[in-house]
Amino acid sequence: MLTWVANGTNICREIYILFIEYYDLRKTSDIFQLLSHPVRLQILDELRKREACVCHLQALTGRPQAYISQQLRILREADLVVDEKEGQNVYYHLHDDLVKDVLDQTLGTAEGPHHYRIAIARFVPGKKRKNFNGLYAENHI
User: Fold this and answer.
1) What's the Cα-to-Cα distance from 105 to each of 43, 110, 114, rounded to whole Å?
2) Mind giving me the DSSP string for 56-99?
3) Relative to the CA of 60, which of 15, 21, 33, 37 has its CA 20 to 30 Å away?
4) What's the count of helices (H) and strands (E) in the chain, helices before strands?
């Protein structure tokens, strides 16, 4: 059995590696749980393109300011986004490239077509919704 000496304590190398792997899997699991919320996903998708303030995200999502602020608080606490204050405005951007890479793999690149927009348009059968071109259309599955 290989052991490491860290701070005067013997640590089994295999246990240490399992701990690191578990931590990475746990963090990845937490990120996917955060991404499972459609509005948070939409916010993160916008923030991977450019930094944005709450008013911009509010206009983008069509949700109230308090709701957007609540979702941003959750993302901030998870260390996925960072806020920077400029005068009276607070701008948000991604903390690092990990979330951007996950979004690029699942939704496509920020510059390319987005798979979720097609899925959203087909989400509610028989209900008229405004599509992404601003036109009303009946949804079909």
Assistant:
1) 17, 10, 11
2) HHHHHHT--HHHHHHHHHHHHHTTSEEEEEETTEEEEEESSHHH
3) 33
4) 6, 7
**What is the topology classification, in CATH, of domain 37-106?**
Arc Repressor Mutant, subunit A (1.10.10)
CA 106 to chain centre: 11
Domain ranges for the chain, please list them.
Answer: 1-35, 37-106, 111-141
Beta-carbon contacts of residue 20 (< 8 Å; ≥ 6 apart)? none
The conformation of residue 112, written as its DSSP 8-state character, comes to S
Is the sign of the CA dihedral 138, 134, 57, 81 positive or negative? positive
Whole-prediction pTM value? 0.63
CB 75 within 8 A of CB 43: yes
Q: What is the pLDDT of residues 18-75, one digit of tens each?
A: 656 666 777 777 888 888 899 999 999 999 999 999 999 999 999 999 999 999 999 9
pLDDT tens profile 122-136: 444 455 555 444 554
